[in-house]
Amino acid sequence: MDSDEILQQLYDLTLVGNKPEVIELTEKGLELGIEPTTMLFDALIPALEEVGARFERGDFFVPEMLIAGRAMSGALEIVRPLLAETATDTIGTFLMGPVKGDVHDIGKNLVDIMLEGAGFNVIDIGVQVAPETFVEAIQEHKPDVVGFSAFLTTTMPMFKVNIEAIEKAGLRDDVIVMVGGAPVTQEYADVVGADGYAPDAAEATRRAKAFVEQRRALTKA
User: Domain range spanning residue 43?
Assistant: First the structure.
């Protein structure tokens, strides 16, 4: 089996959620000398993006999304330490978590991966994160960016609750707040007072980098 075949099978098997074979293929790919970033950006991430697209079309449902996410998590356990070793200088720290009441983490995990690949130190504080937990984590880790995700329209109002909690703690000026998730829009991000919104993981990474660079340039000016 050559590199192209491994990448294609990694994509196909992640798509259908075959975790044991995805793990085996990831290990085989490393043995053949395939770069972790190649497997990530040429197979794993595209597979998860396709899962998301199929969900939006109604071809996939939550169970399919979950098993695909678990399959990818198996590969990530192997490649994540290797990505950390090869990462460039850290751009900044990004604190991430779905809001209280929301347990969906596939999109959040995808953003985490792309941020790490771009050079961010990602602090993932789990799912169903309460406002006070975000505040405590900001105080502890002093991130440049805080990301709130919501997969359900019923949990989106927690964005504003979180931002108000951060303001009350006197931390709002210290962090850039970004929001995202399937039902979220730029208009909603503006209403709740977020600094930024991204429709997907790639755009989230680009915008986070731009925000951090812009803030640092203003600090130096």
Answer: 3-86
